[in-house]
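Protein record

Derive tokens from sequence
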Amino acid sequence: MTLNFKLNTQFWFALAFLFYGFSSFSQGDTSTIKAQFALGVNSPSSNGFVSDFESNAINFPTINLGLQYMFKTNLGAKLDFGFNRMSNLDNSPEFKVNYSRINAQLVFDTSRILSFSNKMGTFIHAGPGFSMVKPLGNYGENKMSYLNAMGGIEFHYGISDKLSVYLDTSYIFGFGKDFNPISDGFGSFNGDLLTITFGASISLSGCYYCGD
């Protein structure tokens, strides 16, 4: 409990520091820096659970928070944090799992190729990360962590000079070890995860969609 609290505290301090640093050095003529917030659902792979433990196909919530920095017109990077909750099907032993991740990703703006309007933008993102799985309730001791690789696509629509809303679909590949013994996997998860979220992207240094 104490270790998890310290890790979470360090993450938020790091995110706040990056946010402050990016804001301090932002320029107003391009959409160099963005803060992103999104909410949605997740769908875990069935092979990430041990026998007799099954999750709902669709789980809520999924929460994503991120900072994005475009160092070229169509190429950038972002650091983002995701939180996901999963729970059991009715015919499965009762369990709940908190799945958190942090990823560093490259971002490619494909708007010139996959855009139908000057208010729309399309971004592809991918990169490595780290997943942290924390079962709740009776299986709280079966915590685990492992590396992951994430890829996804975002569709943005510009609302104003500073704000766009977006739909993101992402897939997270988990590189967790097999549960040994099997009891270590009761109420836990070591598989892949699909997420679909809807959110807002706030430009801290201008925007891409100010041409109107």
About this structure: Residues 1-7, 21-30, 207-212 have pLDDT under 50 and may be disordered. The two ends are 51 Å apart (CA to CA).
